[in-house]
Amino acid sequence: MTDTRQPLIDVGLEQVAELAAQLRIDSIRSSTSAGSGHPTSSMSAADLLAVLVTRHLRYDWDQPRADTNDHLIFSKGHASPLLYAVYKAVGVVSDDELMTGYRRFGSRLQGHPTPVLPWVDVATGSLGQGLPDGVGVALAGKYLDKLPYRVWVLCGDSELAEGSVWEALDKASHYRLGNLVAMIDVNRLGQRGPTELGWDLDAYARRAEAFGAAVITVDGHDLQAIDRALHAAGAGGDQPTVILAKTIKGKGFSEIEDHEGWHGKALPPDLAERALAELGGERDLLVRGPVPASDSSPTVRPMNAGAPKPTYPPGEKVATRKAYGDALKWLGATHPRVVGMDGEVSNSTHADEFAHAYPDRYFEMYIAEQQLIAAAVGLSVRHYVPFASTFAAFFTRAYDFIRMAAISAANIRLVGSHAGVEIGADGPSQMALEDLAMMRAVQGSTVLYPCDGPSAVALTREMADRSGVSYMRTTRGGYPTLYSEDDEFPIGGAKVLRSAEDDAVTLIGAGVTLHECLAAADELAREGITARVIDLYSVKPVDTETLLEAAGATKGRIVVSEDHHPEGGLGSAVADALLAAGSAPLRMKHLAVRELPGSGTAPELLDAAGIAASHIAAAARTLLA
């Protein structure tokens, strides 16, 4: 049914006060109806949002994907009743949906916001992520889109204990993001009691200023003061702004204001009824704030379709990390929305090739892996194609951000170098031995592992057009080129490098162990044993058809070797696929890194881990005995 109400456009502060009351009331009503939620966390920030939405947020609610819209990110995603109450107030969510849909099965009004709603940029709820994501959106606005939109992020005071918030402010200051505003709802109470700093706004201010932010402190329930603060914050400049708003949790209902024990609890019906009475009863305001003044479009960069694709002579030893750098530089010419990012190891990941060629599309996140992922997510919001690289082991630090990127339906591409014992003398602290399992577990992810230069180039190109979270594992050392630049590597495929009618056993590897499998096949051939060799470059999705064909041809005799822990990697991918397909019989030997490695040369460590060619050949013999 069409909403026939006429929205209030030029909203004065008296009407803002009425809206703030409505936001509190609807936060209570929706959470009480659902029987769960966070009404008190919503009530404390209602005045901030009422002023922002009616007087400062430049947003066309009927065109949520308009390039010139401001961006509003609820880092304190548990305050979703407030956000959904805002959506009702601006007329994009009905009261019926708010009351019957919130936190219900199948509803888009989920317990914490996700982009299933077109006005939500990123999923939030895992605290400390909204502001880092906002940095990525602000980077796009200032340096890539070159549009005047602002990024407003509502944070809770509890999440300021997260280091990721300070990583975000540090990078926002470094990149002079005056288009980024963090509104901190300092309501003093966390989930189990008082926060670390309570209402000590001076302590918060010193910290934020130390990270380069412009700080404004304000009474978070004084509408005129909030209005002045938001006006100053939105004026631009070269510093991110932090608004520290002192608020009261549960503001508006005296029986629970500033009381412990109400976090994450819906008011029971009788208490909700008293709260609504104290707040003056239900309202039905329809409001619209300012809209963007400009209909500008993002900056369009020229494409160099004639840029040469990287090529490597047959047999030439090339590290796949180097091939990734070559490929990314090539993509920079042919794909103008590709953006490069790294965590201060670009001279090892070879992302520096892109940085030197396209400095206007490269962002250094230094050793701040959480911010690296978050910035990629924010750039994805603005439809850029971010490639973020670092040592594969260091992505473990940012796993929650990767997990949340999938919930945000973000399209990001991650590249991890220096994986496995193959890296050699650096030792176990630098050896990613769990990255394949970690990335396979991400919802909807793609996991790739090339073995040579051409496959790395081709898979980098495939990633550019891939939706969701994709990950490519690259190797430190150089290995012989097996493929040509004309070979194709579709995601979900595999390559059969050795095959014959009398194959007795199947050897499966990827990356470094693919070369070990080939050497093992040569060793077995000298003994009169023919082995099928499969390059499982696509670990997820996996090529089940090729695996089934090999299992059938070799009577289920399969050896999988991987430079990874046994849990969750290549062997698991193979076993999962074959078992799900009902392959029988299956006699699989799984070689993996089962002991804690140390320092040494790559050949020494591959041998010690039991994943080198001699061990693969020995495993094959046991299957044939």
Can you walk me through this structure?
The longest helix is centred in the first third of the chain and has 22 residues, at 13-34. The protein is α/β, with parallel strands linked by helices. The strands form four sheets. It has a seven-stranded mixed beta sheet with strand order 8-7-9-10-12-11-17. Strands 1-2-3-5-4 form a five-stranded parallel beta sheet, sandwiched between helices. The protein has a five-stranded mixed beta sheet with strand order 14-16-15-18-19, sandwiched between helices. It starts with 12 loop residues before the first helix and ends with a helix. The chain is elongated, with a radius of gyration of 28 Å. Helix 7 links the parallel strand 2 (151-156) and strand 3. The chain is built from 22 helices and 19 strands. It has three domains: 13-278, Rossmann fold; 317-480, Thiamin diphosphate (ThDP)-binding fold, Pyr/PP domains (Rossmann fold), CATH 3.40.50; 495-624, 3-Layer(aba) Sandwich (Rossmann fold), CATH 3.40.50.
Shape: elongated
Query: What is the overall pLDDT average?
Result: 95
| Main sheet specs | 7 strands, mixed
SS field, number of helical segments: 22
**Strand order of the main beta sheet, please?**
8-7-9-10-12-11-17
What structural class should be given to the helix and strand makeup? alpha/beta
By CATH reckoning, the class of the largest domain would read Alpha Beta
CATH topology of the largest domain: Rossmann fold
Query: Strand percentage, roughly?
Result: 5-15%
CATH architecture of the largest domain: 3-Layer(aba) Sandwich
Low-confidence stretches: none
Annotated CATH homologous superfamily of the largest domain: Thiamin diphosphate (ThDP)-binding fold, Pyr/PP domains
User: In whole angstroms, how far apart are the ends?
Assistant: 74 Å
Residues in helix, %? 25-40%
The total count of strands amounts to 19
Radius of gyration: 28 Å
How many domains comprise the coordinates?
A: 3
